[in-house]
Amino acid sequence: xxxxxxxxxxxxxxxxxxxxxxxxxxxxxxxxxxxxxxxxxxxxxxxxxxxxxxxxxxxxxxxxxxxxxxxxxxxxxxxxxxxxxxxxxxxxxxxxxxxxxxxxxxxxxxxxxxxxxxxxxxxxxxxxxxxxxxxxxxxxxxxxx
Length: 145
Description:
globular; 10% strand; mainly alpha; 3 strands
């Protein structure tokens, strides 16, 4: 995690930084988190960016090998299927995508308790501001708070 409380960057500007790093660090997935990400609950996929709201702009790097192991990467090509299975109509059920499952689960939880979700984020942000003020860290002024 690279946390940058004093950076003055919009979500779009942080995404540009993320994209530049991702083009240079090809062995890791990089996600950007920002206090001003919009929470859009229309679909599980659209909620992901909102769940990447954080008290401070930050970048999270995760080794691609770890992501692949979590996703349960198959060593066999899905195009390779036993002909006997085809003829019998006995296909193994496709593995559900862990990313899709998590997104759907998160969507259900957040939409069911949106006020609580917003309250928790606000409390974390207030604590962060107070803690930073005590040690002289200024929070970037380019963001709405």
